[in-house]
């Protein structure tokens, strides 16, 4: 029996009925409170109209029209009984009902699992995971069935003649997981995915999609390949693996300044978003992390690329856009280990002026109007997520993620930003998760000799610190700034650099922890200097960002 798919939701005025009649797909949009008889009459009239058209067509061609068959009866049955014409659509079209149109019977599927969005990435590289973007209605992605096909090599002999169109291609089944990794043998051929949406044992109509382009050769060895040898398996409870990574926003990678001044050594195709996303997804998937904090995440990248990919690898994520920008912060967590309890994101400049917990700091900063203005112009954001251990619900962790002001002379602004940040984090923990340890990730744009690093690692920055006058004496605001936390530890220590571009290299990124609550179990070694400089600097064809990911396993005592 062919399906007749009905979508009918409470609270909506309309329902839809879709089925195939005489080789033509019918989509009907009807009122839920309309009588069934009107729909059946509409189907009946459609058949008559089709027969009339066929008659006219034969006459035009000079053929003798055959005697028109008796129009097909159109009825709906449920449980073997005919449904009365007076029944309302919302009640009549039940799951398991049978629509009969003449001799043809259709099995009514009411609100079956349905694929509403299905996209394959534009760029496909051999040996890199292909993660489709899929959205379902009435279904569960974890239950779906996936079948991957590779295009058969066309006959290119002189006798083969013309090119075979897409629909005429033949395909070979090559995989059945949600994620597929093409091989070098697949280069030059397209991929096809068939997804059967499911919810438990219940299935809906399958959706097929074919890649726009063919699989291309990958870059060979990447900077993260050797690092993956240390992260083959997930960290074992009660340890937790954390990643912090500035992935280089597309809005910055594609500027003329980036192409000609910042990264002139990088092949233009390697700066393209589709290419870089292949590398980022493979790199992140290979770390098998439990918590991932990303900076410079384009909104579209979060929605269309990272979320579908990392969801397939078992992670859920949250995103915080940077005000006035198209990029922001993303935090992902492994759903088999963590549940998101609450979010406490802020824009630092806004919090400084509106939240009374920052009143003392605001008063001190207000003593210098230049510095205050610079601070308030920044859209710097702090993303705060309180996570709960699903295996031990009273075990919580506060995960913070930020990307501080970038300007080389902005040390004083960054100090104020960090003052606001630490105060806010201390307040969130005491109010929402007393005793929860802090894991604080980010691109702090601050070297180990900066005031920001001193404030975090020593819990105090003196008023004579050079960073207070980093942008000149007119912006100086010399004050002693105290942390609301005891000294924090940089879990990955202080590498020679976490950012390596043509004109600069230095350590700007950190994962800070409270040493009294967590201990460092393993730090995944950074790429060697030779690997980083193989193509002069970063980004490159073998590395997708100008920053290097920090990865460590933290022992979090239960």
Q: Give the count of helical stretches.
A: 12
Mean pLDDT: 93
User: Largest sheet at a glance?
Assistant: 7 strands, mixed
What is the number of strand segments?
32
Shape: elongated
Report how far the terminal alpha carbons are from each other: 56 Å
Radius of gyration: 30 Å
Helical content, roughly?
A: 10-25%
Assign the structural class, choosing from mainly alpha, mainly beta, alpha/beta, alpha+beta, or little secondary structure.
alpha+beta
Biggest sheet: strands side by side, in what order? 3-2-1-7-6-4-5
Percentage of β-strand residues: 25-35%
Q: Which residue ranges are poorly predicted, with pLDDT under 50 across at least 5 consecutive positions? A: 157-164
How would you summarize the topology of this molecule?
Elements: E1 2-7, E2 14-21, E3 24-31, H1 36-60, E4 74-78, E5 81-82, H2 89-92, E6 98-101, E7 104-110, E8 114-119, E9 133-137, E10 145-151, E11 171-175, E12 191-196, E13 198-199, E14 202-203, E15 207-210, E16 239-246, H3 250-253, H4 256-262, H5 273-287, E17 291-298, H6 299-312, E18 315-321, E19 327-334, E20 338-343, E21 346-347, H7 348-354, H8 359-365, H9 369-377, E22 381-389, E23 396-403, H10 411-432, E24 438-443, H11 451-458, E25 460-461, E26 481-482, E27 489-490, E28 499-501, E29 504-506, E30 509-513, E31 518-523, H12 529-532, E32 550-556
Parallel strand pairs: 1-7, 16-17, 23-24
Antiparallel strand pairs: 1-2, 2-3, 4-5, 4-6, 6-7, 8-9, 10-11, 10-12, 12-15, 13-14, 16-32, 17-19, 18-19, 20-22, 21-22, 22-23, 24-30, 25-26, 27-30, 28-29, 31-32
Helix pairs in contact: 5-6, 10-11
């Amino acid at each position: 029996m062919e399906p007749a798919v009905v979508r009918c939701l409470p609270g909506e005025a309309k329902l839809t009925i879709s089925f195939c009649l005489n080789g033509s797909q019918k989509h009907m949009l009807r009122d839920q409170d309309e009588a069934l008889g009107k729909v059946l009459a509409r189907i009946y009239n459609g058949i008559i109209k089709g027969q009339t058209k066929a008659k006219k067509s034969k006459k035009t061609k000079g053929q003798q029209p055959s005697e028109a068959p008796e129009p097909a009866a159109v009825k709906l049955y449920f449980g073997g009984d005919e449904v009365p014409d007076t029944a309302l659509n919302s009640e009549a079209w039940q799951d398991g009902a049978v629509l009969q149109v003449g001799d043809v019977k259709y099995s009514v599927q009411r609100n079956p699992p349905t694929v509403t969005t299905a996209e394959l990435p534009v760029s496909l590289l051999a040996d890199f995971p292909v993660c489709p973007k899929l959205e379902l209605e009435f279904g569960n992605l974890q239950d779906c069935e996936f079948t991957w096909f590779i295009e058969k090599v066309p006959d290119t002999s002189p006798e083969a003649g013309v090119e075979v169109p897409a629909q005429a291609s033949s395909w070979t089944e090559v995989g059945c997981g949600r994620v597929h990794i093409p091989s070098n043998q697949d280069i030059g051929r397209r991929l096809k995915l068939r997804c059967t949406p499911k919810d438990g044992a219940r299935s809906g109509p399958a959706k097929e999609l074919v890649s726009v382009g063919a699989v291309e050769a990958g870059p060979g060895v990447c900077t993260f390949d050797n690092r993956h040898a240390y992260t083959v398996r997930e960290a074992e409870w009660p340890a937790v693996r954390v990643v912090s990574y500035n992935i280089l926003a597309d809005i910055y990678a594609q500027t003329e300044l980036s192409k000609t001044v910042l990264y002139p050594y990088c092949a233009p195709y390697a700066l393209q978003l589709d290419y870089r996303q292949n590398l980022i997804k493979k790199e992140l998937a290979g770390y098998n992390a439990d918590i991932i904090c990303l900076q410079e995440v384009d909104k579209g990248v979060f929605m269309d690329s990272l979320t579908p990919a990392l969801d397939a690898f078992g992670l859920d994520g949250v995103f915080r856009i940077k005000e006035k920008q198209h990029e922001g912060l993303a935090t992902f967590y492994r759903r088999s280990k963590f549940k998101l309890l609450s979010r406490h994101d802020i824009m630092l400049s806004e919090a400084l002026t509106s939240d009374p917990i920052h009143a003392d700091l605001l008063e001190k900063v207000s003593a210098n109007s230049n510095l205050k203005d610079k601070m308030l112009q920044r859209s710097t954001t702090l993303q705060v997520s309180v996570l709960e251990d699903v295996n031990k619900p009273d075990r919580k962790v506060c995960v913070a993620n930020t990307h501080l002001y970038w300007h080389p002379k902005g040390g004083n602004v960054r100090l104020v930003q960090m003052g606001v940040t630490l105060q806010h984090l201390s307040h969130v923990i005491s109010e929402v998760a007393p005793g929860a340890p802090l894991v604080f990730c980010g691109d702090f744009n601050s070297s180990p000799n900066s005031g920001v690093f001193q404030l975090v690692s020593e819990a105090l920055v003196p008023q004579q610190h050079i960073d207070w006058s980093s942008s000149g004496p007119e912006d100086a605001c010399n004050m002693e700034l105290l942390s609301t936390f005891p000294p924090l530890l940089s879990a990955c220590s202080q590498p020679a650099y976490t950012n390596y571009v043509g004109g600069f290299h230095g350590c700007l990124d950190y994962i800070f922890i409270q040493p009294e609550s967590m201990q460092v179990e393993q730090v995944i070694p950074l790429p060697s200097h030779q690997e980083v400089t193989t193509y002069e600097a970063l980004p490159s064809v073998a590395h997708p960002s100008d920053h290097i990911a920090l990865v460590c396993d933290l022992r979090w005592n239960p």
